[in-house]
Amino acid sequence: MRKVFLNSFLLKISEKLLDIVFPPSEVAKNIKKMSPEDLLKKCQKAKSPTHPFIYSIFNYKDKFIEELIWELKFYKNKDVAKILGPIIYEKIPKEKAILIPIPISKTKKREKGFNQTELLCEEIIKNDKDSLLDYMPNILIKNKHTKNQHDIKDKKERLSNLEGAFTLNKLSVVSDQKIIIIDDVYTTGATLLEIKKVLEQAGAKSVIAITVAH
Length: 214
Known about the structure:
The protein has helices at about 1-20, 25-35, 35-40, 65-75, 80-90, 105-110, 115-125, 155-160, 170-175, 190-200, and strands at about 55-60, 95-100, 135, 140, 165-170, 180-185, 205-214. By secondary structure, it is an alpha/beta fold.
């Protein structure tokens, strides 16, 4: 018991020291005080995407949303995932489906130490009280390290950059199943289109994607 208390105490001290050395951003401070309802009221909603199978919640041009996603994507801010989890879950059809995060390559995961879409999925599952979703983070694999899509402006080059980048670990799992893909930001949709193609070739019954912003 004493050891558990000591570890907890040391963790709190280390967190305080980190806050002093690396002060949290204004967005990080605000997120701690906000509820999912507050975020929905505060931020601009996304416009209709160009692909009917993709649903985006917020407008990425909203400065607060852009900074919020950066907090999640580059600083592993779990408070962001916690506030987005219930918001995303409310947009998911209430039926049996497999939940899949957008995978990143082994190289990228070594560099970052985490995958932000996995953080989102973990929070989504916590809100799935009826156990409708089967969370399967390891069945979709990104088997090659590609250029950052954000840095590629040409649409054809974006598509060719991702060609053959994704494979399925267990083909039989997705056959005749409804699939929900989770991503943080949707721009041209090249990544989601490539993943949809891979899933449909493996026999998926339907594929939809939900992203935080567009």
